[in-house]
Amino acid sequence: MSPWNQSCNINNTNLCKSDDDVSENNHKICLIGSLVREEGHIYSLAAENGLLYTGSDSKNIRVWKDMKEFSGFKSNSGLVKAIIISGDKIFTGHQDGKVRVWKVQPNNPSSYKPNGTLPTFFDIFKASIRPSNYFMSTKHNRASIWIKHWDAISCLSMDHNHGLLYSASWDRTFKVWRADSSKCLESVKAHEDAVNSVVASVDGVVYTGSADGTVKIWQREFTPKTIRHVLVQTLLNQECAVTALTVNKSGSVVYCGSSDGVVNCWGKEKKNWTHGGVLKGHKLAVLCLESAGNLVFSGSADKNICVWRKEDPVHTCLSVLTGHSGPVKCLAVEEDKESTRSDQKWVLYSGSLDKSVKVWSVSEMAPIMHNGNGNGDVQ
Predict the structure, then answer these.
(1) Does the pLDDT value for residue 2 go beyond 80?
(2) What distance in Å separates the CA atoms of residue 70 and residue 350, rounded to the nearest whole number?
(3) Residue 128 CA to its chain's centroid (Å)
(4) From the CB of residue 49, how many other CB atoms can be counted at a distance below 10 Å?
C-alpha cells in the first residue's frame, strides 16, 4: 500500500452494555443510544456542558440533556444549517442567509428567547444610506449590502478568545462578527464558488473550504480601528468540491473532506504546512468532520462514520460506525465525564438525514480494528 493512502474496512460497532460490568466497556467504541424526533432531517449539532443542540429542516432547534428532550425553540424561517454556543448565547445559521441569536434566561435554564439577528435592523438601515456599502450580487443580479449574506449560511465558527463569530455562505464570502455587539466587522470574498466550511483556529488563523475545490488559509490582523483577514496560502486546489474542514485543538493539523470521499490532512511545523497524505474510508462524499484529542471523525453520504487515531506519523482507522439509514450530515463531540488521563474518552454525536441523532462512546485507547490498516505518513 502506498504510504500516501490510508484505508479502513467496515467494522460493526456493538451497543454499550448497561450492566454493572463497566470494565468490559473500557477502551471501546460503542453506541450509547439514539435520539429520534420525527420532525425533519438533522442538519446541525452543537454540544457543550452536557447539553446537545440539534437543528433540522423543520426550523426547530431542540435541546437534549441526559438523552432526553430538555427544551427547544423555533426560528421563523430557514432550515437550521449551523449552531454555535458562546456562553449564554446560541448562534444559529439558516438557509435564508440570516444568523439568529438566542439567549438562555438566567432564571430558567430551559428557556431560550430570541436575542436578535445578524446583522441587526439598525446596522442594515445605517449601511443602506451609503451607496459605497452596496455591491452587485451575481445570483440575484441586484444590489446588496455587504454586511448581509445574500445566500444560505453553510457553517459557523467561533474564536472564543477574541469574541469573534465567523459565518460562511454559499454567496462565496465569509463574514466576521463581534459576538457581544452583533456588529459586522469584515466581509471577505473568499472563493469562486460556495464556501462550505470555515474554521477559526486558536492561533489567529482561519481556514475556508469551498465548492471550487480549494482550501485557503487566512491570517487575522488587528488594526487600531478594525480587523482584516489576509490570504496567506492555498493548501489545496482540486476538481472536486471541498465539503468539510476541521483543525485539531493546537492548530497543528488541518483535515479537509471532499465530495470524492477522501480526507486530506496537513501538518504544521513552525510556519510551514506539509501534506500528510489522505485518509480513505468512505465510498461517497465526506459531509462533516470533527477532531478531539488524538482522534478525527469523518461522516459521509455513505451513511457511515470513520474513527481515526493520529499516531505520529500515521493515522489508523479504529472503527467504522454504522447504523444510520441516511447520509451523516453533522457531527459534534465533547469530553466524556468518565474520561481519565489513562483513558481519554469522548461522546460523539452524529446527525443524519434519517431524522435521528446517534450517541457514541469513543475511547482513544480503543484497539485497532482487526481488518483495518493504515500506513500513511502524517507530519
Answers:
(1) no
(2) 18
(3) 32
(4) 7
Question: Which residues does residue 280 pair with via DSSP β-bridges, in sequence order?
Answer: 7, 262
Q: Among 46-55, 125-134, 288-297, 360-369, which stretch is predicted with the lowest mean pLDDT?
A: 125-134
Residue 75's closest CA among 104, 50, 96, 44? 96
Number of CB atoms found within 10 A of residue 132's CB: 7
Alpha-carbon span 27 to 345, nearest angstrom:
8
Give the chain's radius of gyration (CA, Å).
Answer: 20
pLDDT score of 128 more than 90: no
Neighbours of 48 (CB within 10 A): 14
Contacts of 110 (CB under 8 A, 6+ apart): 63, 70, 71
Tell me the pLDDT tens digit for each residue of 185-221: 999 999 999 999 999 999 899 999 999 999 999 999 9
Beta-strand (E) ranges in 223-285? 227-237, 242-247, 253-258, 262-269, 272-280
3-class DSSP state for residue 124?
helix
Cα–Cα distance between 178 and 184 in angstroms, integer?
7
Asked whether the predicted pLDDT for residue 355 surpasses 80, the reply is yes
